[in-house]
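Hi R.,

Here's the chain you asked about this morning:
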Amino acid sequence: MVREISAGGVVVQRRGKEWFVAVIEPQREAFVVAKSKKQPALKLVLALPKGLVDPGEKPEQTALREVLEETGITSRVIRKLTDIKYVYVRTWGDKQRVFKIVSFYLLRYEAGQIDAISQDMRIEVKRALWLPLEEVLKKLSYKGERDVVQQAQEYLQSHGEDENGEDENGKDED
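And here is the predicted structure, written out as C-alpha cells:
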C-alpha cells in the first residue's frame, strides 16, 4: 500500500470574543447525498488546508506553506495538535489504496486576505473562507478534521488567549 505524509493547519483568528477558523472548499465534486432516487442533492465539501510534505521539509513548515498556498494568509505555529491516519482510494490515475498520515498544527493568523490565492491554486481550491469555530465543528466534511478542530477549541478554552495571542498576564502562549 502506498503511504503519504501530509501536514495542515487549524488557523484561528479572534474577532472580539469569537474565534474564527480558515477553511477551504476543495475544487472537486461535492458529496452526492441521495435525497430521493429522482433528485440527488450535492453537499458542500469543506476541509482544513493541508498537503504533502515535500522532501527536506518539516511538517510544521508544510502546514504553514499549505495554509498560505490554499488560503492566501500567513500564520504562525502555536502547537502541534495531533496526527490523523486513514486509508483512501485514489479516484484518479492508478486507483491505488493509500495509507495517509496528516500532522495538524494549531496556527494563529498573522496577515493576508483570505481567498487571495494564485490562479494555479484554483485547480485545487474553489474558495477559502473564515467561519466561526462553532460552525466549523458542524460543517467540516471529514470526521477526523472535526476532531482536530475540537482539540483546537479545547486548547483555546484552556489557555485563555486574548486577541493578541497572549495569556491574561501578557505573555505569549507559544
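One quick note: The radius of gyration is 17 Å.

Cheers,
M.
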